[in-house]
Specification:
By secondary structure, the chain is of the alpha+beta class. Helix content is 45%, strand content 16%. The chain is globular. A six-stranded antiparallel β-sheet has the order 1-2-6-5-4-3, with helices on one face. The protein has a domain of 118 residues: DNA-3-methyladenine glycosylase AlkA, N-terminal domain (TATA-Binding Protein). The chain has 15 helices and eight strands.
Length: 316
């Protein structure tokens, strides 16, 4: 549910999730592995800048109520057109994972002993989706073969160097860099941020493909999974691991299992491996039993692994 109002030349939107929402747990990724300048999480407030064409639209989200009656209030400074409010509302729904069928997943999970044990301690947890496709892919490249805290450090440096700082609510949030800006980035400058030479080239070449129209990221939103995988893996530096996470954490596809992810493999080894790490094929077969709730099941399995000890690598 979305309601909109205007007060003192500000637009306010109210979103009420369908089902439970634990905001603190859902947004934990923005503080768990380090700073994210483009997604600023403070005490009781989330700040971000939407890049809408050539416009930069800062906004902040506050929340109230409990897990079962959470209410999100979105504030957009300045008078805003209705279409801007709609674009911001859509982005907020993605960031807070509001479109996931949590109730349906819980019904499924109750019949699976492993997942059933995770419902109570993780009740209301939702995957947060990447606000923009390019943002997701750059992060995925940064996270390849390194632990997530280090990936976040490199990504933060990139955002501060090439993004656009915007003041909002007494704080600063950085709009994620535009494709044209990253396309013009020099490899040696990215190397100074501790990206490897190959990762620097992957990021630059990805941005150039997007800028030139060779990769239409917006069109992937409605493309079949197989087409998304084919188009992404055709680019140097983007393999099946990246494509699977893009399907899961950018497009929010339900029947997706990133079976090649190290943390996912560890989770399956712990619960179903019988002392061994299952193959990717075996993991995909096991996950297929969860049907359209595979994405949520994987998210809960990874979060469950962190209940005992913080994760340092793998996953999203």
């Amino acid at each position: 549910m979305v309601a909109a109002s205007r007060a003192r030349q500000h637009m306010n939107l109210v979103l009420e999730p369908d089902g439970p929402l634990d905001v603190h747990a859902t947004l934990a990724r923005y503080r768990l592995w380090g700073e994210d300048p483009s997604n600023r999480l403070g005490e009781g407030v989330f700040r971000r800048v939407l890049r809408l064409g050539a416009r930069l639209v800062p906004y902040e989200v506050r929340w109230s109520g409990g897990v079962d009656d959470a209410r999100l209030t979105v504030r957009l400074p300045g008078a805003r057109a209705t279409r801007v409010g709609e674009a911001v509302a859509a982005e907020v729904r993605r960031v807070f994972g509001l479109d996931f069928d949590l109730a349906g997943f819980y019904r499924l999970a109750k019949g699976d002993p492993v997942l059933a044990a995770l419902i109570e301690p993780l009740y209301g947890l939702r995957p947060t989706l990447a606000a923009r496709p390019l943002e997701m892919l750059v992060h995925a490249i940064a996270a390849q073969q390194v632990n997530l805290p280090f990936a976040f450090v490199c990504r933060a440096r990139l955002v501060r160097r090439y993004g656009t700082p915007v003041a909002i609510g007494g704080q600063t949030a950085w709009a994620f860099p535009a494709p044209a800006t990253l396309a013009a980035a020099r490899v040696r400058d990215l190397r100074r941020m501790q990206f490897s030479t190959r990762k620097a080239e992957y990021i630059r070449d990805l941005a150039r493909a997007v800028r030139a129209g060779a990769l239409d990221l917006e069109a992937l939103a409605t493309a079949p999974d197989a087409v998304v995988i084919e188009r992404l893996t055709a680019l140097r530096g983007l393999g099946r691991w990246t494509a699977d996470w893009f399907l899961a954490r950018c497009l929010g596809r339900g029947a997706v299992c990133p079976a090649g992810d190290l943390a996912v493999r560890k989770a399956f080894a712990r619960h179903w491996g019988r002392g061994r790490t299952p193959s990717e094929a075996a993991i995909r077969r096991r996950a297929a039993a969860w049907g359209p709730h595979q994405n949520l099941a994987i998210h809960y399995l990874l979060a469950g692994m962190r209940l005992a000890a913080p994760a340092t690598g793998g996953g999203t």
